[in-house]
Predict the structure.
Amino acid sequence: MLVEAIGLTKHFGARGAGVAAVDNVSLAVAEGETLALIGESGCGKSTLGRLLLRLIAGDSGRIKFDGADITDLSQRALRPLRQKMQILFQHPDSSFHPRKTLIASLIEPQRLHLLAPRAAAREKAVRLAVELGLHADILDRYPHQVSGGQLQRIALARVLTLDPKFIVLDEPTSMLDVSVQAQVVSLLRVAQQRYGLTYLFITHDLDLAAAVSDRIAVMYRGRVLEQGPPAKIVDAPEHDYTKRLVSAFRYYLKKD
Ligand SMILES: Nc1ncnc2c1ncn2[C@@H]1O[C@H](COP(=O)(O)OP(=O)(O)O)[C@@H](O)[C@H]1O
Ligand SMILES: [Mg+2]
């Protein structure tokens, strides 16, 4: 397993006050796999993703990455691992400085991680952007001068400049038009193959989860209720919540 969570728990605010955002969650993501994490808004998906990446601290439980227990690593000890574990956010515009050109933002992570001199960093960023189907010309523009779909591609290119192994995709297409969504999803798949990536694909959309994933984990109020291949989750859901989720989506499918 590339990524493993064992009994992860996280409360916000005073302990014992209300329910845990993430409550005793155990899951694992195999190398090269896409695990979809599905559940309604507020059920704890983003919190779980951020816990796995050690972007926030949990209350209890263990996190393993590539065989090593990273739960208690210091920020300094985490530094070399940070580049291997990345996140792609729902709002691509929030990850770009509005007054920096796209190429300047694309180069930054490599510079921060002291990976390459400026010229080499630039060359790599441009190469990745072009491999993701972007024209090199648009990289001289500012974030507001390109479309949401283009910006999400550039955000992906930027993550890829660090040669990550694991990427948390936090609802990466939910802000995009439906037609653009499909393009970004297929691009994510191509990138996964080409660069040997492992994904945690967070979404509230069961159709999307079933289309992109090898396995689905269903989350409800901080807990993972069940996990399995899409066909198993959709055709033989075990929990009442999953059954409701599936029938709601069937209902939508029939209506269309
Ligand atoms: N930084 C935070 N401070 C306090 N509460 C938070 C914070 N982040 C998330 N929460 C709460 O934790 C719960 C899970 O949120 P989140 O992980 O964002 O859910 P999801 O991504 O599934 O929509 C929610 O009740 C949310 O209000
Ligand atoms: Mg979220």
